[in-house]
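Let us practice reading a record.
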Amino acid sequence: LKEWFVKFAAAVRVKPGLQLWSDAETFDERFWTTCTLKRLIAQMQTVQPYVTNIITVAYSHDYSPLSVDSGFNKGYFYYTRTGRLPNAREPAGVKQFEYSLNKYDQPVFRWQSSGDNKNICGYYLYRNNLLIANMQKRGSTGKLQDYFIDTTLRKGGSYQYEIESYNFNGDVSLKQSTTGAINLSKVQNHSD
């Protein structure tokens, strides 16, 4: 990204009065979820030395309290006034992270929140140390998801799963693991 902006900034300097603006993305394209404040700020800090201004065209649907939890908007507003992230407690981890197999032999994960969800806006789920899901609270009255079905497994694999809570800033809880690895002799790729 930096290399791209360095080249564009050099080209813009050739024409007096021409300006280079950047669009900061307020979403995570891997899961089409709202990005945390730390990720948004990191994007802006990366391009800031090369651009005249930074805008976002996606704010109305990715950070607006009409679309997502108001914690994103409140945190960003705090940042624009102070230049700092809001103070937030480390999010509490989930309880009773368990799974069962559905009729297609796909693992269905369920968990309970810690009960202190004020600053939690989502959960990251990992399989064999790779992030496979970002389950985020949607809207001002949305509920945090408390289950996930892994429909992408292959026959004969061995899988270890972990989950962590995260807050609007991007701070994460300690990871919780399932007990032991999940070994599947047969998996049918269907949605339940």
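A brief commentary: The radius of gyration is 20 Å.
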